[in-house]
Amino acid sequence: MRMQRRLGRASGRVLPSADAVALPPSGAKILVVPEDFDPPPPATLAEHKHISGPFFHGTKAMFAPGDLIVPGRPSHFRPGRPLDHVYFSTRGETAAWGAELAAALAREDDGGISTTARVYEVEPLGPFEDDPNVTNKRLPGNPTQSYRTRHPLRIVGELEDWEGHDAEVLKGMLDNLDRLREQGLDAIED
């Protein structure tokens, strides 16, 4: 996945993320993990310095460099429930999933109004840990390299040239989310 940063002057605004999302449990394959995959040590609030950036956040929100994404906004996966964490990844593809799902789910919530998916490079401003929604679920460790924090993420810049998923792949992920909602299995461990 080719990505290019757009950096600019910091605005200093503090904007909560309207869709701080992690990848939901689904049938979509995000990456191929070799059978001999040896997961790295887990990232915990006390031990996370071994995880290095760049870090990415996928969203539908528009930010400027220097803006802060803070916890406390509802997730599009559970619209009535504010999240205690902000989610991010070291993998551009994982952030792309977050951006595309946030934009697609916002269109559903807003009656089909067009929303742009955006991927940002971010800097975590406090301790973080593995995202428990994807760690040790279908594969050992944290192959999506997804993390969460109760602290803000500072926007470094927007990635202008990132590659999204084919429409049918995105539709498959959304269909899986609908099935999980119908079964009451769309919980987010936040």
Oligomer: single chain
CATH T-level topology: ADP-ribosylation fold
In terms of per-residue confidence, which ranges show pLDDT below 50 for 5 or more consecutive residues?
1-30
CATH class: Alpha Beta
Give me the Rg, rounded: 16 Å
Compute the number of helices. 2
Helical fraction equals: 10-25%
Whole-number mean pLDDT: 75
Number of domains: 1
Main β-sheet: number of strands, strand sense, barrel status? 6 strands, mixed
Strand content: 15-25%
User: What class, by secondary structure content?
Assistant: alpha+beta
How far apart are the first and last residues' alpha carbons, in Å? 29 Å
Strands, total number? 9
CATH homologous superfamily, by name?
Answer: Rifampin ADP-ribosyltransferase domain
- Do you know the CATH architecture? Alpha-Beta Barrel
Element-level helix/strand string: EEEEEHEEEEH
Anisotropy-based shape: globular
